[in-house]
Amino acid sequence: xxxxxxxxxxxxxxxxxxxxxxxxxxxxxxxxxxxxxxxxxxxxxxxxxxxxxxxxxxxxxxxxxxxxxxxxxxxxxxxxxxxxxxxxxxxxxxxxxxxxxxxxxxxxxxxxxxxxxxxxxxxxxxxxxxxxxxxxxxxxxxxxxxxxxxxxxxxxxxxxxxxxxxxxxxxxxxxxxxxxxxxxxxxxxxxxxxxxxxxxxxxxxxxxxxxxxxxxxxxxxxxxxxxxxxxxxxxxxxxxxxxxxxxxxxxxxxxxxxxxxxxxxxxxxxxxxxxxxxxxxxxxxxxxxxxxxxxxxxxxxxxxxxxxxxxxxxxxxxxxxxxxxxxxxxxxxxxxxxxxxxxxxxxxxxxxxxxxxxxxxxxxxxxxxxxxxxxxxxxxxxxxxxxxxxxxxxxxxxxxxxxxxxxxxxxxxxxxxxxxxxxxxxxxxxxxxxxxxxxxxxxxxxxxxx
Length: 450
Prior knowledge:
By secondary structure, the chain is mainly alpha-helical. The protein has 2 domains: 20-182 and 231-364 and 378-386, no CATH class; 390-450, no CATH class. The chain is built from 19 helices and 4 strands. The protein has helices at 27-56, 60-82, 103-113, 118-139, 149-171, 174-179, 187-206, 209-213, 215-227, 236-240, 258-287, 293-313, 322-331, 336-350, 353-360, 364-386, 393-411, 421-427, 431-444; strands spanning 3-4, 10-11, 96-98, 318-320. A two-stranded antiparallel sheet has the order 1-2. It has a two-stranded antiparallel sheet with strand order 3-4. Helix 2 packs antiparallel against helix 12 (293-313), helix 2 packs antiparallel against helix 14 and helix 9 packs antiparallel against helix 16. The longest helix has 30 residues, at 27-56. The radius of gyration is 21 Å and the shape is globular. It starts with a strand and ends in a 6-residue tail after the last helix. The relative contact order is 0.21.
């Protein structure tokens, strides 16, 4: 049974207490549990800035800075969720990190402008998109009825499916290997990427406990270590990186371009839908209950505020991380304080640029092996949500039309070239048309009688 300490705080010990977000395990257990949350999301969190840096041709200290800020903002955004601030924050064990969902919007910006000149445009759009996302949180509770598992499952699955080609490209060596060094698809790239995939799968299913939960990070480390004697790792930037550095808000300035801002705001709607799915997954998997309107609203507002903070600090948009939802279901520990400890680990890491330099030196092929698995896992998470949907003819039609149009336009973007650039950009993200069509069709098509 639970007891009341002299300080007035509860000391939890029963099975029901594990489902309580206010439960605080002993530090000897809380610290490893918090570190496990960091290990599960760390690779994904730093993958996005590395991919954007590659698309824009950014390297050296600028690339390290993006990685450093990704860690800092992820930690701060996570604290907004776990500790909260007034109505902001779900006060649930939600781990925030840099969002893959916005890559279809950010990569074209980075690729077209090139270099650090692309960063002010990206950060300006991130700031506005985050503010828009925040205000979505104030009203999203009223629209929960239009976001059933049919919609959220399709959105999450599409995120993974649209990103898989990027992961495969990195296994081949990335854009640098394709257009500059001309060794795209070389045996050593494919070998390293394949090795990482094998290690991840072996660790995930043959190991137990924290090793199994950290399979992606272990795969990256093994691939990195094997790549060193193969002479495909450049440690030049590591030696130049400082051991300690303070963050520099607005280091690259900030600017606003209409197409980028509109694209980011529209994608914020998709990100908000994803967040609703994650919050629902946490409360259902960890506590066996539905999320409250306050948790949905507060979590979405914190998501948006974290993204806006990223625009000011020099980071990409943030979102709740789906892989950490799985950890909660696996461990059965709903403690938000455990995730707070993980957030503090991230913040401390952000003040050590050497860490960012070591990560940025990772070969693209190694990163690609992990990306293939991570992006596939995101698609799998979407399919899991769809598993609870009644697969009648109506719902099958909604799935078929939404995926066909969304993924089809992404594969053949020239079909919508007659539209203005910002409209064409949104129509070819894959995500936006899938989300829009699934919501619209779910509202319009009559329900089937059983």
